[in-house]
Amino acid sequence: MTARKYARMAGRVPRQSTMQIFFWPLVISIAALAGLILGLTGDGYRDVVAVALVALGPVLIILSLRRKSQTRNPVTVKARS
Amino acid sequence: MKRRSIRIWIMIHKWSSLVPTAFLFMLCVTGLPLIFHDEIDAMMSGDAENALSGPASAEAGLPLDSIMATALAEKPGEVPLFMAFSQDSPLITVTTGPSPAAGGEEMSLLFFDRATGASLGPAPTNWFMDFLLQLHTDMFLGLPGALLLGAMGVLFVVALISGVVLYAPFMARQRFGTLRSGRNERVRRLDQHNLLGVVAFAWMVVIGVTGAINAFADPLTESWRDGEVAAMAAAYEGEPALPPWRYGSLDRAMASAQSALPGRSPQFIGFPGGAWSSGHHYAIFFQGDRPLTQNLLTPALVDAESGALTDTRTMPALNQALMMSKPLHFGDYGGWPLKVVWALLTLATIHVLWSGLMLWWRRKPADTELRIAELYRHPSEVPA
Question: Whose CA, among B8, B119, B163, B228, lies 20 to 30 Å from B191?
């Protein structure tokens, strides 16, 4: 197995820039903060948008935890091949 | 980031997390049911407010003096301490006690219907929720307990920031959201710790900061009363406190205050000699008239004997920060859907605490060095 293939199976990608690493965390954090403030400053539809924005994080967590394992154990794979 | 910097940040993250861990677990576990305290209270003791119909007690209803007379007739020998209004129903709450400076444990809370004047009996108490709230606020240790928890909140924020700093080098070669499950228990746990931690980061910082501010609630209120209220009531300096039998009309006092702050809705009245007023005044606290300022209270001090307005001033910035931090900490301003999100994020926080603790507990002496070395394995890939 090549090193590149091993890295891909272990979920590794070429080294990312700081902006790439923090892109999604930043989007989720800004959404959560915007939601918290929006909820405080109004009622009605604002509350619905606020909840949706703050809920983005928990929804992503649940989806990630439910997703099937991304990588297989390379040792097991090698033994089979 | 250099190896040395990573080592320092790991050290900061480790100790700022380990020291408050036990307190943070307690705060999460007690905080979880407290998010739903309205629903739990209504389920266990009935929802007095929901059963009433009529205008909100903050807006209209029977004269305040007649409600107070009924309350004092139910509690002979006691003095009024607070009167609190509802923005949604005719429910009005009167708090009485044996003396104007009575402590919380000596107070009696009575419910009334301002539309009909009917007495609804003592406010229901829920020992279980009261116990959780006390544990969550000061661990039954009073101010020192509250300040200790406030300090733990500050450490929590340090742990969160150092965690995000470390997220960069350790996630440089992992796509966002990667959960490696095939390698070993430690890697699986680390990935979950990183993902849940970074996703819930902003919310956890807000909860940590607002929790720490709330820990200073009592000293902030005291400093407001001793500074601002004393300055507003400077003309009364040196006079003995007004005895309860000389208290004048509440309705007249309310009319004076509302003429100075037209269109504002009252939230509660602090009576003379208590923590929320001077020795001579009804302190009538009004909500802001816009959604943003709804949580910011403006007090009007009205001479309790004559009913004449003495002064009205907005609260100092720190006290305003305290008032804004309460809803942001409790998550009770967006209906039950926001409460569910609050609960999910609390569960995520518990998971981050637990996985972090396990990563430390099951560590091997060389683990940290190995992980740092792995980041620098390829000379061409030295992180920035």
Answer: B8
